[in-house]
């Protein structure tokens, strides 16, 4: 899930470990047979075929060596492939059972105590191997025992008599031994399998809870969060369907917010009013409701429709929030499904985690909505604020142009002052809005790979006429080849334009040098002027909104103090850097740096 | 002089425009909407048009210019905009998209607009004369 490493279930880890353990144990068993048989035969004088037993012991050690190497190879090549390890385990068990049957035949057949050794493998197989055809597989052990007993009973195989008198042809003894052994095998298998099944189920539940909870919290999208809660709930409980019904702000409606495994028709038909949905009301009040049978539970709305959906039983828990329940998480079971006591705990755990995630997602959605409203508001105000200023300017321009009759000198002077103030207002509104819009529309900006050299050229050329009129030399030193940076074209133009405009504005004589260079993968734009400079105490405030250095006010009264704030904001928005160095009365250098980018198609 | 149609939903702008266009000696007709503008186009048959980019719809002016060109009319169109750089819209690079002859950003500078009008009318006359 999510590209993370798969968590290896405990049973698989145990399986790999027990394969190892079986091989170690088999060395001992083989050695015991090889050494034990001659000792028992010679020292203790037991009537055993020592040579054949020793040979069997050697065979055990032999195939164990083979298994040892196979395991070594599997560990290196097929680590984590559970199916392969399962097959390997079955192979070992089969080999062991055949040799156990052989040992049994050599030590008295139905009289032999060796049959007990079958039980080890039955325990291991029942606990660690998949249970499909489990009882049939386990049946192989009594089958082999029965086969040995039968062969000796009929005299096909010679009997090794360890009891006197021999009982291998006593039908009651043989039948009793075989059947008692078979019952012991199956009872043991049943016990182990049911323990294993419970443990596996609990492990799956815990794993699902862990996965579900991790996934629930990993999204801030409300719909996605709700869907994940439903999935986690269904997965943990292994039930037919799950659904979340959320309470509205007034607490009078519960609406389907997400579901897993339910038809759309069913979702549409279930009532939303709290007054009519007794089950939801009870769940929100008591925390938990359990409907064992939808047909006979009076709290269930329209039992026929619910049964038609294939639902027989329901377990509902409240989804807790900071200030009260957020809604209901419900699990639906089909006919024959029974929710258990610990299902309540699991569903509540999912609901609790879900509640936190829902609140986070809701808060995030609220913020995103607010942000969108703010952007929309800004866009509207842009037009609404700018329009009247510009129309008024148009009207005054018509007046001052003499198109409505000649103006007396005093009238012209008044009009000129009004126009200047209006122009300041125009600039202020533009700057304010571009600053605010820039801050608001961060996500709307589409990065493009642009040529900073071309952008610098275009922006600087706009100020050539103004500079020449003032007698200031505007010199551009740009590389011949494009300097690629990642930016938005409008932003880039405004950044360069603002800095060059300032340089020209605050330089009375001398020059403005615009130099662009590439250095260590960075694009560096220096705009150096021989202008009024910036007093040292002003340098640290320079990029603050509305700040203007005192000597700047002396040059131009109507500046807004937003130009450099906009520059810094835009440069940082594109992960660049802007710095300034200056000496009052001597000049200023603004340095803008961006990381070089690679143009598309290269 | 020339018959000029001004299409803008802002009466203050149309008033100012008609003042200086008439002062120059032009005959000016005002239309306050795209629909009214299209009607005047038929009845008044202007020689030049001044068109605002935003009316009821943000792109009414552009749509109207496209409609006029599609109908095969070649009269010069001067477009007024108040959008500019803040909204990130830039014009002029794609003549097919916005088939007009000149752009002016509000506030409208009368002298420059008049100069442009004169220039466009001369070009049209020259075109006619050649034919």
Automatic annotation (TrEMBL), chain A:
SUPFAM superfamilies linked to this entry:
ATPase domain of HSP90 chaperone/DNA topoisomerase II/histidine kinase, GAF domain-like, Homodimeric domain of signal transducing histidine kinase
* Domain of life where this protein originates: Bacteria
According to the record, the signal peptide region is none
Keyword terms, alphabetized:
Kinase, Membrane, Phosphoprotein, Transferase, Transmembrane, Transmembrane helix
Q: Which residues form a coiled coil?
A: none
Q: Which GO terms describe its molecular function?
A: phosphorelay sensor kinase activity
Query: What enzyme class is recorded for this protein?
Result: transferase
E.C. number(s) listed in UniProt? 2.7.13.3
Q: Which Pfam family name is an example for this entry?
A: HATPase_c
Give the InterPro entries listed for this entry. GAF, GAF-like_dom_sf, HATPase_C_sf, HATPase_dom, His_kinase_dom, HisK_dim/P_dom, HisK_dim/P_sf, Sig_transdc_His_kin-like_C
Q: Is Transmembrane helix there in the keyword field?
A: yes
Residue ranges of the TM segments: 27-46, 53-74, 136-160, 172-192
Domain Histidine kinase, which positions? 380-598
Q: Which reaction does it catalyse?
A: ATP + protein L-histidine = ADP + protein N-phospho-L-histidine
PANTHER family associated with the record: HYBRID SIGNAL TRANSDUCTION HISTIDINE KINASE C, TWO-COMPONENT HISTIDINE KINASE
Which protein, by its recorded name, is this?
histidine kinase
Organism this protein belongs to: Eiseniibacteriota bacterium
What does the organism's lineage look like at the top? Bacteria, Candidatus Eiseniibacteriota
Automatic annotation (TrEMBL), chain B:
* Domain Response regulatory, chain residue ranges per copy: 3-121
- 4-aspartylphosphate (modified residue): where? 52
| GO aspect biological process, one term | phosphorelay signal transduction system
For this protein, the parts annotated as crossing the membrane are none
Q: What does the UniProt keyword field contain?
A: Phosphoprotein
Pfam family, any one: Response_reg
At the top level of its lineage, which domain of life is listed?
A: Bacteria
Which Gene3D superfamilies does this one have?
A: 3.40.50.2300
> By its UniProt entry, which PANTHER family does this protein fall under?
REGULATORY PROTEIN (PTHR44591:SF18), STRESS RESPONSE REGULATOR PROTEIN 1 (PTHR44591)
Q: What is this protein called?
A: Response regulator
Origin organism of this chain? Eiseniibacteriota bacterium
Upper classification of the source organism reads:
Bacteria, Candidatus Eiseniibacteriota
